[in-house]
Here is the input.
Amino acid sequence: GAVVSQHPSRVICKSGTSVKIECRSLDFQATTMFWYRQFPKQSLMLMATSNEGSKATYEQGVEKDKFLINHASLTLSTLTVTSAHPEDSSFYICSATTLLDPGLTDTQYFGPGTRLTVL
Amino acid sequence: AQSVTQPDIHITVSEGASLELRCNYSYGATPYLFWYVQSPGQGLQLLLKYFSGDTLVQGIKGFEAEFKRSQSSFNLRKPSVHWSDAAEYFCAVEALQTGANNLFFGTGTRLTVIP
Here is the structure.
């Protein structure tokens, strides 16, 4: 149980275009989802936290107009990188957690990540 | 402020040897503690977690970790390493014990396994 998927697994786009990344909880209802960014050989940097049906809470230094997060249902959150530039190239990982299943609370379950390359 | 330290950036062990990955945290109360493993190009997989109770916790893939309050440590161990264990290992701390809260990650330890 507690499987999280991401789509696409990798994407290449041109500078100036927008890219949408999906994060889905497959076998549980995710009341909270997190979006992380990971640079090569580095740890994960939390970008934002989103609760289902609410606006996302962004970490300091993360541009909310550039990284649009939507968590419209208990199984889906999306991250849209708007007007992408080469410096946005990175590995984006989502995670999900739930308050609805006592066996899964207080633990984040991670997706497999999305490799974004902006040319 | 909360922080997590993994002092070893890179560890190399021989297949079949024992392994210990160190993790120290800084937090005012007893946090929730996690170890995750990341294979190249992949997301993070939960190995084990400690919330309360028995300070020695068992995880998947033969891993275990011991919470030592006096040392603010949560070291990960495995008695016999397999080549497939080569990966990046992250220790993480959840700062608050209510609901789904932020994880603070260490910088990771890269494990290389040699035949």
